Every structure is written in C-alpha cells, then in structure tokens.
Amino acid sequence: MSELLFETAGGIATITLNRPDSGNAFTTEMLAAWEQALRECIRDDAIRAVVLTGAGRIFCSGGDVKRMARNAASGQSAWERGQYLIDHVHRIPLTLQELDKPYIVAVNGAATGAGMDMALMGDLRFAAQSARFAESYIKVGFVAGDGGAWMLPRLVGTPKALEMLWLGDFVGAEEAERIGLVNKVVADDQLMAHTMSVAERLANGPTVAIRLMKRMVRQGATSSFADALTFAASATGVVAGTEDYREATAAFAEKRKPVFKGR
C-alpha cells in the first residue's frame, strides 16, 4: 500500500497521507513522495489548486514517536536528528514556498505535533467537527521542529501560540475556528465536499490573478508598504494583459458569468 496517494482531476490535485493504522505519521518514504507530489503540482500548469488530507480518522500525528524512541535508544546524535529534519521533514515547507497555487488542507481528525504544523502550512484550512489540534512536542520533551513556532503566532497571536506550545493541550475544532486557526468547521461527512467545492472555485477562477494574489500576500508579510504597493502595480499590469481579465470585464458589461481559461 502506498504511504501517500496523489491524484488529479478537473485541475485539482489531491494529496492523501495514507498510513491510517499509524496515525499517518511520517516516514522517510512518505516525505519523499510528498515532496515529489508537490513538485509535480508546481510543474504542471494544468493543476490549479492542491488539496491535502489524511486517510482514516486521524489527519496526521507528525513524526513517528516509536521510531524516534528507537533512534534515541540506539544513540542517534543530536546532529543526526537535526540533519534528518533538514534532509527530509523540512523539504515539505521549503517546497511549499515555491507553490503559488492555492494549497487547501482538509483536517479530517487529530493533527498533532509536526502533523499540526503541516496543517498550518495550508493557505486555507477546513476542519471536520471531530478534528483536534495540539502542538504536542512538549509532551515528549521536544520542541516544535517543523515551523510551528514561526507559523502559529502569526495565526493566533503570541500568547495563544505560547500556551499551545508550552502546554501541548488539545484545541477542539470550534475553538480552532474561533481563534483563527482554521477557516471553517463542517460536519465530518461534509468535509471533503466542502473542501473540494472551494478548490473547484479556485481551479476554475482567473489563474494568473489567483497566483499573483498569493505572491502579493507572501511578499507583503516581509516587505514595506511602499514595496507592496510597487509589487501590486506590477501585478496589475501583468493581470491586465491576460485573457481572463478581458473575459471578466466583458462578462461584467454583458451581465453574464465569466468563463475563465486560466491564461
């Protein structure tokens, strides 16, 4: 059985973590396949939106704690542990930095430790009512090794982030929505339908504008307001030359729904 499923249809790529009997915990092979799938999403212009979810009742439990315990018992050095993160786990967030297409995470169950951090990397996050979130590193005497300490304060603020990182307690789906950790909570049996409906809207939208908007938001997080305005002016010039822009303005004038071509 493949540890990661990757399929495309209708301009949407779906990545499914597929170790349900192990809480979809990472393995080296899963991480390699995950990176390869993301690279394909970056390369293939026919893919206009990407969805990530987990098989079974757990979204992702992060690193395989049993494997970590075996490594610790066998004398794995601190250097080797850090290097493993760099060589394998960190490949996912770093590759995602190159993806300017919408990346939507459907959290179908518990997301813990690095599994929660992987969920935080989504542009949008939708959660099933049964979903729970925990920065559980502290429970095993560890620190957030997959970007959680950087991403979480930017989503929920520093005090709440520190509370989650220091205590490692679970936050339920409704609380996650209240504090801005997820965009929306839906019934368990409606999670994928809702997620795919949003992905379809994005996949069928004006592709260049959508991708540039993501770039603008990312650059704006680390640039001055003046630089952001300069980028916005440049992006406006690019979008104004697209077929989708001409179609959208014509459709508006003709009082009809635009039909976008993604170019």
TrEMBL record:
Protein's name according to its UniProt entry: Enoyl-CoA hydratase-related protein
Superkingdom classification of source: Bacteria
Record PANTHER family: ENOYL-COA HYDRATASE (PTHR43802), IP11341P-RELATED (PTHR43802:SF1)
Source organism (scientific name): Paracraurococcus lichenis
Pfam families: ECH_1 (PF00378)
InterPro entries: ClpP/crotonase-like_dom_sf, Enoyl-CoA_hydra/iso, Enoyl-CoA_hydra_C
Family per similarity comment: Belongs to the enoyl-CoA hydratase/isomerase family.
Taxonomy of the source species: Bacteria, Pseudomonadati, Pseudomonadota, Alphaproteobacteria, Acetobacterales
